Structure formats: C-alpha cells, structure tokens
UniProtKB/TrEMBL annotation:
This is Uncharacterized protein. Keywords: Membrane, Transmembrane, Transmembrane helix. The chain crosses the membrane at residues 42-62, 83-105, 111-131.
Length: 181
C-alpha cells in the first residue's frame, strides 16, 4: 500500500475526487463517513511498565479525524466487515489466553500450549484474510494532516492530481479577486 498525505479538513466529497480508495473504480462510488484515530507507537513501551499507564498516555496523545472517503459499496462493506472480524478475533484471543492458563493449571500442558498458539494465530490469520489491503489505514495524524495508506494506486494518483490542480488554481483565483477589488 502506498501513502498519501491529505489535509485533515479536506476529507469530504467537495475536496476529493470520486474514486474508490480500495479498488480505484470511478463508477458507483459513494462517499462514506470514516473516523480515524492515531497515537504515537512509542506508547507501547509503557505496556511493559504498566498497562493502565500506557492506556492513559495513549488516550491523552490520541488524535482523531472524521470525514468522508469515496468507496464502492462492496469495498466499504469488506472494510467494515474486516474491522468487525478483527475485533472479534481479539476477543477470541483473550478467551484462548485465559483458557490456556486454566488448562496449564489443570496440568494439561498440550492443550494449554495449543490454546496459547491459537491466541496468536487467530488475530494474525484474520488480519491477513479480512483486514490487510481492504481499506485505508491511518499512519499518522499531525499538524492538520493525515497520512493514509491506501490499497489503490489509482486512487492515490487521482487524489494527488486533484490536490495539485486545486493548489494551482488557488493563486489564479486569489489574483482574480485582487484585480476585481
């Protein structure tokens, strides 16, 4: 997936061309509401010290962006479905981890080890099968800009062309306003 940096306040149907961010299609595209959240990844180091401290720091440093991005109906459904499946796989992994502890305590090391292996394998498998390359991924939010990884190279190209064209037309429009005043 390739990256694009967009102004955070331009995630809408007025500032972006109608091209699906997943497939690159330009037909049957609708702008859908999206929400992104990002926090610095170095916060994960604090998990080693204390999970509560890490959660508090992550919450304090989290930056959020809301807007609309263009999707085909199928691509949006697959992206949302992947998010739901991944959340369920995390819940399953926690259950398998706890189940593995009880299996080890009951001296059933083989099943306990299998449960712990599955608690790692389930989210990884779901990620590769249902999440990866199915939708936009936020890489960073800073200084009024959002860096997104998009599966579609065509969408990135069209977004960049649209942004460049918009920037080129701004000075001429500003000049026309000055001349008319």
């Amino acid at each position: 997936m390739n990256k694009i940096i967009l102004p955070a306040d331009e995630l809408n149907e007025f500032d972006l061309p109608p091209v699906c961010v997943v497939t690159g299609q330009t037909e049957n595209v609708e702008f859908k509401d999206v929400k992104f959240a990002w926090y610095p990844r170095w916060v994960a180091v604090f998990i080693l010290i204390n999970l509560l401290i890490a959660a508090i720091i992550a919450t304090a440093l989290t930056k959020r962006v809301k807007g609309k991005l263009p999707f085909t109906e199928e691509a949006f459904k697959a992206w949302k479905q992947g998010q739901v499946f991944f959340a369920l796989s995390i819940v399953a992994a926690i259950g398998l981890f706890i189940g593995g502890i009880f299996l080890f305590l009951s001296e059933n090391e083989v099943l306990g080890g299998a449960a712990w292996l599955l608690c790692l394998a389930v989210p990884i498998t779901v990620n590769f099968k249902f999440v990866r390359n199915k939708g936009p991924v936020v890489e960073r939010i800073a200084d009024g800009q959002i860096t997104l990884k998009l599966p579609s190279q065509d969408a990135i190209r069209m977004f960049k062309e649209h942004l460049v064209a918009g920037r080129q037309s701004l000075p001429s429009a500003a000049g026309a306003l000055k001349k008319s005043a």
